[in-house]
Amino acid sequence: MTRPIRVVLADDQHLVRSAFAMLISATPGMEIVGEAADGREAVALARDARADLVVMDIRMPVLDGIEATRLIAAEEDLAGVRVLVLTTYDTDEHIIEALRAGASGFLVKDTRPADLLEAIRTVAAGEALLSPGPTARLIERVVKLPDARTAPGAQPEALRELSPREREVLGLVARGLNNTEIAETLSLSPLTAKTHVSRIMGKLGARDRAQLVVLAYESGLIVPGAS
């Protein structure tokens, strides 16, 4: 029997935590192993409760969700812990910082219950919660800002080491395609597409597909708004 997904909830609003906890606890294959009211508690619980995933609010006291995510991503003992960030609006520019910090995706707080549960399953399985919709639009908007960390076209050295095929695959990942869709687009087997993605992540030191998307846009490999 497969063990349930162990979830930590981190949100400074008690009612929000309680609502999510009731939903998740009532779902087969999931269990709540801790609730945190701030980012510092979230990091401690992720470690002590041996969590698989943290549902993390961005705006919290003591330590916000971005810094908490960064600490989780940087700690070797927490390498298997995934972070799904929550925000009130899908235009929150802090989301891009959370993705840079190591989050595997995001949801707005008024998402449908079924979508939250599916997001937890997706992220816990090691996939990023990405689509050609809100995430891509958000990244496109934020990388246009003057404080974007990488100048357009200024590609990191690691990106230059990718083969032409790997750069092509990375571009499709950045546009929100999954492995099956990449395979169909490039006439590859799904296994080959998955292998390419894994190698790209290894070469670029990316934690997951979410960071690949951010890197592709910030490096200028993908131009915001381009088809």
Secondary structure: elements and pairs:
Layout: E1 5-10, H1 14-25, E2 30-36, H2 39-48, E3 53-57, H3 65-74, E4 82-87, H4 94-101, E5 106-108, H5 113-124, H6 134-142, H7 157-160, H8 164-174, H9 179-186, H10 190-204, H11 209-218
Parallel strand pairs: 1-2, 1-3, 3-4, 4-5
Q: What does this entry look like structurally?
A:
There is one protein chain. This protein is an alpha/beta fold. It has 2 domains: 5-129, Response regulator (Rossmann fold); 152-218, Arc Repressor Mutant, subunit A, CATH 1.10.10.10. The protein contains 11 helices and 5 strands, in the order βαβαβαβαβααααααα. It has a 5-stranded parallel sheet, with helices on both faces. α4 links the parallel β4 and β5 (106-108). The chain starts with a strand and ends in a 9-residue tail after the last helix.
Short description:
This protein is an alpha/beta fold.
Second-tier CATH architecture of the largest domain: 3-Layer(aba) Sandwich
- The residue ranges in which pLDDT falls below 50 over 5 or more consecutive positions are 145-154
How much beta, percentage-wise?
A: 5-15%
Strands across the major sheet, in which order?
2-1-3-4-5
Domain count: the total is: 2
- What order do the SSEs take from the amino end to the carboxyl end, as H and E? EHEHEHEHEHHHHHHH
CATH superfamily of the largest domain: Response regulator
User: Rg to the nearest angstrom?
Assistant: 17 Å
Could you tell me the CATH topology label of the largest domain: Rossmann fold
Instruction: Just give the CATH class of the largest domain.
Output: Alpha Beta
* Count of helical stretches: 11
The average pLDDT score comes to 82
Q: Major sheet, described briefly? A: 5 strands, parallel
Q: What is the share of helical residues? A: 40-55%
Terminal residue distance = 45 Å
> How many β-strands, per DSSP?
5
Inertia-based shape: globular
Class by SSE composition: alpha/beta
